[in-house]
């Protein structure tokens, strides 16, 4: 069973991310929360990804969030940046 990590201290009252944690486990949990704002099997332009990231944080660094989502395989992109998408997670039971 997967442990649920509490990220509330990194969110404001409206659910926006206020900072990225330094610890990897917490950082990943905050990024996974942001990734939930993207629909699986939906294609996004870089501008749309930036817009969603901007909407869900308040520290003015959407490009860091975009890069972190990709680096942590929570979003994927074409090499030329023409398309972004959220990968579908395979569930093992």
Count of DSSP-assigned helices: 3
Gyration radius (Cα, Å) is 13 Å
Number of domains: 1
Task: Give the proportion of residues in helices.
Answer: 25-40%
- Give the overall average pLDDT: 92
Task: Compute the number of strand runs.
Answer: 3
How would you spell out the order of helices and strands? HEHHEE
Give the spatial strand order of the biggest sheet.
1-3-2
Largest sheet: 3 strands, antiparallel
Distance between the termini: 11 Å
Shape: globular
Strand fraction = 5-15%
Uncertain residue segments = none
What structural category characterises the helix and strand content?
mainly alpha
Structural descriptors:
single chain; 93 residues; mainly alpha; 3-stranded antiparallel beta sheet; globular
Question: How would you characterize this protein structure?
Answer:
It comes from Aminipila terrae. With 93 residues, the protein is mainly alpha-helical. It has one domain. It is built from three helices and three strands, in the order αβααββ. The protein has a three-stranded antiparallel β-sheet. Strand 2 and strand 3 form a beta hairpin. The longest helix has 12 residues. The mean pLDDT is 92.
């Amino acid at each position: 069973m997967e442990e649920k990590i509490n990220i509330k201290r990194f969110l404001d009252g409206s659910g926006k991310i206020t900072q990225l944690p330094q610890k990897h486990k917490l950082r990943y949990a905050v990024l996974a929360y942001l990734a939930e704002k993207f629909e699986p099997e939906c294609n996004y332009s870089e501008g749309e990804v930036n817009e969603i990231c901007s909407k869900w944080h308040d520290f003015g660094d959407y490009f860091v969030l975009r890069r972190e989502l990709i680096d942590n395989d929570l979003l994927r992109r074409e090499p030329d940046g023409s398309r972004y998408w959220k990968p579908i997670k395979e569930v093992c039971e």
